Structures
1.
Amino acid sequence: KAGVTQTPRYLIKTRGQQVTLSCSPISGHRSVSWYQQTPGQGLQFLFEYFSETQRNKGNFPGRFSGRQFSNSRSEMNVSTLELGDSALYLCASSYGTQNTEAFFGQGTRLTVV
Amino acid sequence: GNSVTQMEGPVTLSEEAFLTINCTYTATGYPSLFWYVQYPGEGLQLLLKATKADDKGSNKGFEATYRKETTSFHLEKGSVQVSDSAVYFCALTGAAGTASKLTFGTGTRLQVTL
């Protein structure tokens, strides 16, 4: 069974640009969550989608958005990039939303210059 | 809100030494508790979990017991190997008892030498 796939693995963008990251969950999983990992702030929850609906949202500005498609694949978008958005963005999938294990992808390393 | 406190790293041990990484938490309700491991350049891998008080999670020689009275979930391994060198994260679920929002500790880097 394939794991969680995130694309691209690495990305370099310029300040002010926007970026879209993609996540394909494990087959059969309907919940997808996104996390930002930085040396200073650690791992922080961005948002979670289940059956194409956003169920939870972390404390991030509106420049961070996401969506989920009917096949459970998810994308997150960051507009008007800032240097501080440089981070490892991790996607996690789980079967449901009640005490089920979350499986993480390898992440997308975003560098904003 | 929920929070997780882990011991500061790095932790440097010789191969075959005993490992303890402390983790305490603050949460409302009855969260599930997890240990994740991150190897260089990789995402997070679930190492073990416990879903209720007194549960013991175990995997690959690692163990942790859910202690509600001390709000702790310390990670232990009797004999570490060089291949265990990684960053270890303690985490818990959101207050609703779902796995949809994990709160992580700051991570503890473990380095094992020969």
2.
Amino acid sequence: QVQLQESGPGLVKPSGTLSLTCAVSGGSISSNWWAWVRQPPHKGLEWIGEIHHTGTTNYNPSLNSRVTISVDKSKNQLSLKLSFVTAADTAVYYCARSVQQQLDYWGQGTLVTVSP
Amino acid sequence: DIQMTQSPSSLSTSVGDRVTITCQASQDINKYLNWYQQKPGKAPKLLIYDASNLDTGVPSRFRGSGSGTDFTLTITSLQSEDIATYFCQQFDNLPYSFGQGTKLEIK
């Protein structure tokens, strides 16, 4: 059973960089695509981007210049960095496995609040 | 970007009801559509992929249909455990986008 666990600071200052990791267990990150999705409080889902284990990435153009997704095969984890954050980036951030563009396994999510 | 519009945004229902949720894409997405169920405080869960295929373990009372721009999620006989918010997602074109969600509530 594949399991994903997000971790990182729950509070980031405006104009700072949001950094999260997603540890994958029960399966290898060296297969499939892996995605990040976020959900502002009481709002809908936003696809942030995805990465293939080879390093190929696709990003949402609305965040393109600020977002970086990477994989660390040695640690079996993926990472998300979002720079120059504002209050609008406050959200629950999820990582998920993407198989044929189906997000079939998700982490439990981690709330990141952008505040001074 | 492809816009996904769900209706209704919320629905007051009763156990045993037949529930229909629609999702409309701003352009033809063939059958490249998934449905997810999200319960409060939990991550979304994949229900249906490729518009009409049930994910493993999903009860048969859930049905997906449609192609092109118009899609439907039907719950044939609502159970209490189905109370949740449902999202559609297109994956025909990047960026993959979600509908705004349909929240089911009990009358």
